[in-house]
Amino acid sequence: MRVRCIQQTAVDEPETVFTDLTLGNIYRVIGIEAASYRIINDEGRPYLYPPALFAVIESGTDPDWVTTYGPDGERYSYTPELGRPGFFEDFFADDRDAILTFRRYTARIFRSP
Question: Which residues of 56-78 are buried (b: 16+ CB within 10 A; e: fewer)?
C-alpha cells in the first residue's frame, strides 16, 4: 500500500504536527495497527500515524502480510518478520536482532518495484 501525505496536523489534535513527514511525499505502509498506519518516515523510522494524514494512491497489501483481529475487531496486518508480538518495542529498545530484521526487510521492499 502506498499513500501520499496530504496534511501534517492531526485532525483530532491540532497541536500535534508530524514534522517527520513531508507534504506531497509518497510513503509505503509497512503495517496496519488498529486505527494507524505504520510508515517509514523521512528519518527512516517506522512510526504509527493516523490514516487521515494520507490519501491512498495504491491500495492493497503485500501478499505475504498476515492479518489478525483484536478483541474489539481492530485490524493488525504485517509481514511475518515484522508482525511478531513486541517486534517494534524491541526495535525501539535497540535490540540488535530486531534492527537487523528491519534492515533486511527495508532492503527487500525498497529493492522491489
Answer: eeeeebeeebeeeeeeeeeeebb
